[in-house]
Design a protein that fits this description.
The chain is an alpha/beta fold. About 40% of the residues lie in helices and about 10% in strands. A seven-stranded mixed β-sheet has the order 1-3-2-4-5-6-7, with helices on both faces. The longest helix is centred in the last third of the chain and has 23 residues. The chain is globular and about 45 Å long. The chain starts with 5 loop residues before the first helix and ends with a helix. About 50% of the residues are buried.
């Protein structure tokens, strides 16, 4: 994790495996899904490839609930919460003060989590899919650790999530007023039809949003404010799937097309959904399952590269 030397990271992982808990004063930045063991054991066949699923800003592991069972037939599925979201503590951030958090900080935390759940002695490759900010985290992992990311899926994500100013303003708003203002405005950004907010799925997602720690949410806004990988994406080596929502108002289809155009060999699929893709879970599941299954041979070839 950022700020820890390599030997300190190793000592921490060994302590976790011996005791089943994290060292006092060093809580994990990201938490695995509810129902997993303390060490974050993924669900699914123990000998299957690892698939890491990242959430969008303001959501929790719940965002992948509809796809978990099907994907868990062929993969060990590891979902995680962003800092301040679900069960992940904001206080474990390297520095949650305004303007300090970057997407690289989040990516470092995901990699530390993966190393914890896989043992960490010998780095292993994994597949990575993420919605919006979760996709940005995956992209940074693919760029900074190309041998670790065997396949990458970017769902309703972007190479740059707009200008910096509005994200800084939103961070300031939630630090000042809490999450209540966002619960009122998020349905219009999140869903293809704002009426989705009144469905059981929509209400659950909005309840999760309301429960987010404002400091953690604001830190993630800061990370998005400084995120721009347009110049770097041509260096991505992992096979990549880009899924764009035809009704996505937060990252319209132009963002998906830009991603697919910048990542070499990327495949673009469009789905009739809004930003969180909850309106078409089956279509997202089919696209991911088909892509990830087809990427197995490619991933094996990548592992043989010098």
């Amino acid at each position: 994790m950022h700020g820890l030397h390599r030997d300190e990271q190793l000592q921490r992982r060994l302590l976790i495996r011996r005791t089943g808990r994290h060292q006092p004063g060093h809580r994990p930045l990201l938490r695995s899904e509810p129902g997993q063991t303390r060490s974050g054991t993924p669900t699914g066949p123990p000998d299957a490839p690892l698939l890491v699923l990242g959430p969008s800003l303001g959501t929790t592991t719940r965002i992948w609930q509809a796809q978990r069972a099907r994907l868990g037939e062929d993969f060990r599925v590891l979902r995680y919460d962003l800092p301040g979201h679900g069960g992940s503590p904001t206080g474990a951030l390297r520095d949650p003060s305004p303007g300090a958090t970057t997407v690289d900080d989040l990516a470092d935390a995901v990699l530390a989590l993966v190393d914890d759940v896989t043992g960490g002695e010998e780095p292993s490759a994994f597949r990575c899919a993420g919605i919006s900010l979760g996709g940005a985290v995956g992209a940074r992992l693919a760029l900074r650790h190309p041998r670790r990311v065997a396949a990458l899926a970017l769902v309703c994500s972007s190479a740059r999530f707009g200008a910096e100013g509005p994200w800084r303003e939103r961070a300031e708003l939630v630090r000042r007023e809490g999450m209540a203002p966002l619960r009122e405005t998020s349905p219009g950004r999140w869903f293809a039809d704002p009426a989705t907010a009144r469905t059981p799925v929509g209400r659950a997602l909005l309840d999760d949003l309301a429960a987010v720690d404002p400091a953690g949410y604001a830190a993630c806004c800061d990370a998005l404010a400084g995120y721009d990988v347009r110049a770097e994406l041509p260096a991505v080596q992992a096979p990549t799937l880009v899924i764009g929502g035809t009704h996505d108002l937060a990252t319209p289809l132009g963002h998906a097309r830009e991603l697919a155009g910048l990542v070499p060999g990327a495949v673009l699929r469009t789905v009739g959904c809004g930003h969180l893709a909850v309106e078409a879970p089956d279509a997202v599941e089919r696209a991911l399952a088909s892509f990830l299954a087809g990427g197995q041979a490619v991933a094996r070839r990548m592992s043989m590269l010098p």
